[in-house]
Amino acid sequence: SCLAPIGQLKRMHQWKSKSGNEKENSNLGLFSYPVLMAADILLYKSTHVPVGHDQLQHIELTRDLTNLFNKRYNNDVFPLPESILTDTARIMSLRKPQEKMSKSDKMVNSRIDLTDSDDTIALKIRKAVTDSNSFLTHGLNERHGVRNLIDILSALTDTDKSTLIERYGGIEYFTRNLKSDTTDALIEHLKPIRNRYEDIISDRAYLNDILRNGSEKAKEIAEETMSDVHKVLGMSL
Q1: What's the pLDDT at 37?
Q2: Which of 45, 96, 100, 161 is catalytic?
């Protein structure tokens, strides 16, 4: 945190969007979150970090802090982390398709949860915001809800977006077909994940073993990293 420039933290997109016009009344947790994220990444000397598009700026901050630390102490203690993005880096809200889908959104119908039942998925997609245009065209820039469903279906079925646009292009009231196909693809994709989750969550002994073993492994890596940092800082005993 002593290396993190306040000016750079103030430019973080999430800080500006979530604090809005109430920056003076916002809390330190929100402001310093990118620094804590960087600490989590660097503590385990992560080389690659899977993130959403909205987290890219935080990875850039982490890289800046890595370079600052390594240069200041003339040592390559921390590797320079790289971000990992999927082809569909950002999925938008089903209810407010100009905003990203978020698990913290108070509107449960705005998102698809991994544990949603088939019926819940179908209901959420049926209620997904689209528009009143009966036909699909290639000009989707202003049709945020339709574009979002196309993006979701494209990612789930590994189908090029232009192919999907051609598929639904000649169908009047195409959104019924698009929503039905998106629902089917989501159910097929998420059902094995949900089933595996239910198997794991019902086996408390197995779950506790995973948590304990993971904690021990993480502690070992963290202690080794902190030992390296202490040596560089001249703090080793």
Answers
A1: 95
A2: 100
Q: Which of 71, 103, 127, 231 is catalytic?
A: 103
- Three-state secondary structure of 154-204: HHHHCCCHHHHHHHHHCCCCCHHHHHHHHHHHHHHHHHHHHHHHHHHHHCH
Q: What is the mean pLDDT of each run of 10 residues along the chain (237 residues)?
A: 89 81 80 94 96 90 96 94 86 94 92 96 97 81 92 95 90 92 98 95 95 97 96 83
- Domain 108-202: give its CATH superfamily: Tyrosyl-Transfer RNA Synthetase (1.10.240.10)
Catalytic site residue 100? yes
Alpha-carbon 210 to chain mean position? 23
CATH topology of domain 6-88: Rossmann fold (3.40.50)
Check if 219 is active-site. no
Can you give the pLDDT at residue 89?
65
Is there a common fold for 6-88 and 108-202? no
- State yes or no: is 45 an active-site residue: no
- CA dist 135 and 120 (Å) reads 27
